[in-house]
Amino acid sequence: MKAFDLHCDTLSALRRAEGEGRPLSFVHNDLHIDLEKLEAGGYMLQCFAAFVDLGGGEDPLAAALEQIELFGRVMEACPDRIAPVYAAGDIARNAAAGRVSAMLTVEEGGCCKGSLGVLRLLYRLGVRMMTLTWNYDNCLAASNVKEEGPALWPCPPDTEHGLTERGFAFLAEMERLHMIVDVSHLSDKGFWDVVGHSTRPFAASHSNCRALAPHCRNLTDEMIRAMAERGCIAGLNYCPAFLDDQSDPAACRSTAGLIARHAAHFKQVGGAGMIALGSDFDGIGGQLEMTDCSKLPLLERALGQEGFTDDEIEGIFWRNARAFFEENL
């Protein structure tokens, strides 16, 4: 089965390895994602996030740019096997040439330092989707998970703080550029700010259902319905903490069956057409039944057992995301 995946942190894992003096080959490595695993898994498209940790003590823009540069090196190393996506037509062209498509995204809009000029530069460099926040509040918006806050389980959502004035300017400019706004990690108030002011469909690239796993990183049923009404898309996250409802986060599991349960809830609330994959591979830990991106047959089987038709499973695996990108890039 073909596959699209809306989010992974492989670029930051590769950059970290380089910084530690142990560079990894993108073709074959021990990460969740490499080129051989993508090809074995039948991937048509993988979104690669330039992930930035505002609390990491480094310049956030430099961190993003270094990962964008690394993305370019990866693309140049295997041009006959993987190629970037800048416009909707690139997906079909790459597929016809037998290449995996790679879309560059950013996880942490704070890397722009509030500059619309930097945002436009990132677009010119190939970025086609961006979260407004990660786990820190920034000059654009409030985050739902606070890295500097108390270790609460499950984390309480932030329902009071949303987009800033600068954040609304970024929302408008991203829509003008056709850079997809990604609401994963955004506060509850920020989510509703996007709903109230956006004019184009947006994405939650790697978020699950709060009704099944009560983590604030997940979407409420009201959010799911709002997204479905606006033609948005949500990627199923494989992180144990966003799938399971155990009282102890260390006991949370990531299984194909639990992912399929979240997919079934998305379908019940918002319809099967809004569901995609958003693995969060190379950014998550814990015990994963799907240990890397080549293990998608486990999820295909679990979705069938959950009552999804073959047509609906194809939609979740790739068709829904492909239609979303073709309409919105």
UniProtKB/TrEMBL annotation:
Q: Name one GO biological process term.
A: proteolysis
Q: So which domain of life are we looking at?
A: Bacteria
Q: Which InterPro entries match?
A: Metal_Hydrolase, Pept_M19
One protein family per Pfam: Peptidase_M19
Q: Under the GO molecular function aspect, what terms does this record hold?
A: metallodipeptidase activity
Name the chain's protein.
Dipeptidase
Q: Record the organism.
A: Candidatus Faecalibacterium faecipullorum
